[in-house]
Specification:
Length: 304
């Protein structure tokens, strides 16, 4: 079965009475008649927060402001008729409506919208990720639903979009764990946050903990979601040997290693990680860091 990947951004928008805004898929979308949080695919080089604002305007007619990143999750939808399994990484934001008039998407992917209590939403067919975000039981989609894979232009072989999960990893002594990028990869020689790309069908937290073992030999536990970073490098030079138009969507978590050991790259890691090491806060000064690492280590009040 062919495997495809998507990255999407969605929003939880509530009215003054606490009802949540949902949209219903039209006959043009992969799951017609099913309700979900407004949102959709992130375009190449687009920041996820900008994507959810754009998608709200297109699908609902509302102008919204993003207030925070609520959750990140992944799911796989299988289209057996055409032999395709689509893995979607979903970033869900809290948003606040600032203007506009609610309406469905003209000749687009939604044909109805409405404000619902949690109990009301539970009586309708919901996309599983939407049910999960609303605290409702997630039920499989009906087997007789007339589904179709969303039609999108084939991406260029030199254009890549990648979703990854990374960690600000610390131990009880307050040390920070970093990994050095190996030669032949963008950012070679710089210290990076542990983590990497997720596999097909893999949740971001599971991917991060797997990468932590592979890159440093550490067993960690995820404490909280910190935020999302957007990287666009139109001429990234890596092991492919030619420049690629690279778009990375990277979520960052706070991770605790309760029983730290000597950091070492295991045999499973291979490739992009040259070494791993623990650093005290004082040792971090002067290290060559990637932009994501430097930003994550900067206190919030000191960020531009």
């Amino acid at each position: 079965m062919e495997q495809q990947r998507r990255v999407g951004a969605y929003g939880v928008c509530r009215g003054s009475d606490g009802r949540v805004l949902l949209v219903r898929g039209s006959a043009l979308c992969p799951c017609p008649g099913v309700w979900q949080l407004p949102g959709g695919g992130i375009e190449h080089a687009e920041h996820p927060a900008h994507a959810v604002v754009r998608e709200f305007a297109e699908e609902t007619g509302l102008t919204v402001e993003v207030t925070m990143l609520r959750a990140v999750l992944a799911d796989v939808t299988t289209f057996r008729d055409v032999g395709v399994a689509v893995h979607t990484d979903r970033l869900v934001f809290d948003v606040v409506a600032r203007g506009g008039r609610p309406r469905p998407e003209p000749a687009g992917g939604t044909d109805e919208l409405g404000w619902f209590t949690t109990a009301e939403a539970g009586q309708m067919p919901l996309m599983p990720f939407t049910a999960e975000l609303l605290g409702l039981p997630a039920s499989p989609l009906p087997s007789d639903l007339p589904r179709a894979v969303a039609t999108e232009p084939e991406p260029s072989a030199d254009r890549r979009q990648r979703f990854g999960a990374y960690g600000l990893v610390t131990d009880p002594a307050g040390r920070v764990l970093l990994t050095m990028i190996a030669d032949g990869y963008p950012g070679a020689g710089r210290w990076h946050l542990p983590g990497g790309g997720t596999d097909h069908g893999e949740q971001p937290v599971s991917a991060l903990l797997r990468e932590l073992v592979e890159e440093s030999g550490q067993l960690g536990r995820v404490v909280e979601l910190i935020g999302v970073d957007n990287l666009h490098n139109p001429a990234a030079l890596g092991p492919e040997g030619r420049p690629l138009d690279w778009h990375g969507v990277r979520v960052v978590y706070r991770v605790a290693v309760d029983v730290p050991t000597e950091a070492r790259v295991t045999e499973l890691a291979g490739g992009s990680t040259a070494r791993a090491a623990w650093f005290t806060p004082e040792q971090l000064a002067g290290l060559p860091l990637t932009e994501l690492t430097a930003l994550t280590l900067t206190p919030t009040e000191d960020r531009p």
